[in-house]
Each structure stands twice: as C-alpha cells, then as structure tokens.
Write a structure and sequence with these properties.
alpha+beta, Uridine Diphospho-n-acetylenolpyruvylglucosamine Reductase, domain 3, single chain, 368 residues, 2 domains, globular, 29% helix, eight-stranded antiparallel sheet, 14 helices
C-alpha cells in the first residue's frame, strides 16, 4: 500500500484488519521483521512550505531526504542535526525519507552542539492506529499542553502513528569549517582530549574517535576568522600539536563518522551504545577493544562484535542503553533491538500505545 494523500493513509489504517509494517524509504530496517501488510509513505512527497528567512521548512513525510537537503542547499541552509545515511552500514538501498529520519530520531555528530532531530522538529501531522488525523506544534517553537506529540513521534519508529507531514527548523551553512586531527590515539587518551575540547569555550561541533586507526577528530564551524582563531587556541591547549584539515576534506571526515564508514561492509552484529562519555574506554575494554566509532565525545559508541556475544550482559554494569542496529534475521528474532524498559517506563509506553494504537496494528513488537 502506497497512499498519495493523508486521507488515503487514514482510510487504509482505519480499514486494516491486521498488522501494518510502516515503511518510509526502507533504508533503516531494524529489529525483527514485522509480519503484516506494508504501508509505504513514499507516495506522500514534496516540500509544501519553505521560508528561508524564517529558517523553517514543511515537507510531506515521504519526501526523499536528498530532496530536502537539495532544497536547503540552494539557499545556503541545512538540517542542523546532520542525519546519518544508514545504507552503507545496513547494506540497504532506496532513498531515506524525511519522515523516516524523524521516526527514528536520526541525529549525527552535530548533536553535541545543536541537539537531536527532535530538537529541530516544530510540528507533525500523523494518522494514529484508529485512523484519526492528528497534528501538534506548528511552524514556530511553542509550549503545548497535554501530550507533546512532536517529541513523542520523534523516535517512535511508527509505533504511535504514521507521519504524513513534518515541520522543521533549519540552519544556515557556516562560512567555514575545520577539523583538528590526531592519529595513533588510545580510546582513553582520545576521550580525555575530546572532553577537554568540548569543555572549552570554543564551540566544538563534532568530537569523535575511530579505533581502527586511532584517529581523534574535533570540528569547528563558523566565520572563517573565528574558526582559525579557535583552532589555534585548541592547538595550543587541549589539542596540542594536532594537524588541521579544512573545507571539503574536513566535511569528508565527518561524513565518514556520521555514516560509521569504518564499520560498513562486514557481516558482524552492529550495536549502538549511549553511555556517559568518560565510560567509553572502559566499555570498549569490557568488549575486548573491538572495532568501534565513538561519536559525541565518546557518548555514542558504534561497535562491531561477534554474533554470539551477549553485549548487554557484557556491559551490564555501565549506565546507558544499547540498540542492536544490524544482525542476522535469526538473532533479530530472539534478541530485542531496543533495551527492555524499566517497569514504570514500560507501563507509560504501554499506555501511550493503547491511546494512539488501540488495536496494536502499527509495527507491533518492534519496540516491545
């Protein structure tokens, strides 16, 4: 089923007699496969409103991400939260959609500076599991009463409703960017320096470590003179003697971090761990120092581990959560993609799903 209008989405959901597998561009398959009819949002496409002066954009949920980015680039703007392209890591094809990005709350290296995808989300329109069309938020940031559906929908993976339209705040592309680079670093040393850089007054927009070659990266963006000044100050302080890469070469480095290029192409299981940044070296040591990409100053760890490793048990003493992003189908069937929720949170989640999907037909079982 590929509806082309919101009313068709509502009719299809209201008339559904069984489970529905909600799909945007099909580039982010995660967890056990949902058994049911596929409802694709790719027919809901197009930028419906764009006001560069107001830094706002409204698009139908099935609009390809590349189209949104091209529209913004023509006006010297971008999505601040730097959404990842999962296709290389997950060996998928097709085109990611802006609704899929929001549904998965996909957020890249710049999250440490500007927040996650949900923090750029101004409003949503969606159809819930009863076939009702709902909307929340608008073209400007504002407080609302009752459910904050804008925040709830970001990261809900289609389990609360099928998004039909999203409204986002956007950002001007800065004049310049530069990345300070060091190689041959250990995780412990890299995280220590990344933490110092993030704690400095120099407005760092990226801080990452790639274990494959011991490469540590710190990104600066802004006016050219400001970037140059901040890079010089960091080179004389936290990032002493690090080299500087600028322009397109810098952008390429962060595209590789964003898309976790160092882990692409293998057959092992890929996990995504969110931890306290200073815990990252100990987590990697517990796991046997596997191939990993640490973003957000060490707070986000992408790790490649053998299929048989019980990763959650291996890091059970560490505060945080783990998501199984890639695995063979057999493993996806018996190992949940998302961490089991504590009882109070699980009860709240169950109540929300009962409210917005009373029949339990939207991506059932995907998030518990």
């Amino acid at each position: 089923m590929t509806p082309e209008h919101e009313t068709e989405v509502a009719e299809m959901i209201a008339g559904a007699t069984g489970a529905l597998r909600i799909q945007g561009g099909g580039t982010r398959h995660i967890g056990a496969s949902v058994e049911g009819d596929v409802l694709r949002t790719s027919g809901l496409s197009g930028v419906t409103l764009y006001e560069p002066g107001a830094l706002t954009l409204v698009a139908s949920a099935g609009t390809p991400l590349q189209d949104v980015e091209a529209t913004l680039a023509a006006e010297g703007q971008r999505l601040a939260f730097e959404p990842m392209d999962h296709r290389g890591l997950l060996a998928t094809s097709g085109n990611s959609t802006i609704g899929g990005v929001v549904a998965a709350n996909v957020s890249g290296p710049r999250r440490i500076q500007v927040g996650a995808c949900r923090d750029s989300l101004l409003g949503v329109r969606f159809v819930d599991g009863a076939g009702r069309v709902l909307k929340n938020g608008g073209r400007v940031m504002k407080n609302v009463t009752g459910y904050d559906l804008v925040k709830l929908m970001a990261g809900s993976w289609g389990t609360l409703g099928v998004m039909t339209e999203v409204s986002l705040k956007v950002q001007a592309v800065p004049e310049a960017e530069a990345t300070l680079v060091a190689e041959g670093m250990t995780a412990e040393k890299a995280v220590k320096v990344l933490s110092a850089a993030l704690g400095s007054p120099f407005d760092v927009s990226g801080a990452a470590f790639v274990s494959e070659d011991g490469k540590a990266l710190v990104r600066l963006e802004g006016l050219e003179s400001s970037v140059r000044y901040r890079a010089t100050r960091l080179q004389s302080g936290a990032c002493q003697d690090w080299s500087v890469v600028e322009g397109d070469m810098s952008a390429d480095l962060w595209r590789d971090v964003r898309d976790v290029k160092a882990l692409c192409g293998g057959d092992s299981t890929i996990w995504r761990l969110s931890v306290k940044p200073t815990d990252a070296p100990a987590v990697l040591q517990k796991l046997g120092n596997p191939n990993a990409v640490c973003d957000w100053g060490g707070g986000l760890i992408w790790v490649d581990v053998p299929d048989e490793l019980d990763l959650r048990a291996a890091v059970s003493g560490v505060s945080g959560h783990a998501t199984m992003v890639k695995a063979f189908e057999a493993m996806r069937k018996h190992v949940p993609a998302f961490d089991p929720e504590p009882a109070p949170l699980a009860a709240l989640s169950k109540g929300l799903r009962a409210k917005f999907d009373p029949r339990g037909i939207l991506n059932p079982g995907l998030m518990g």
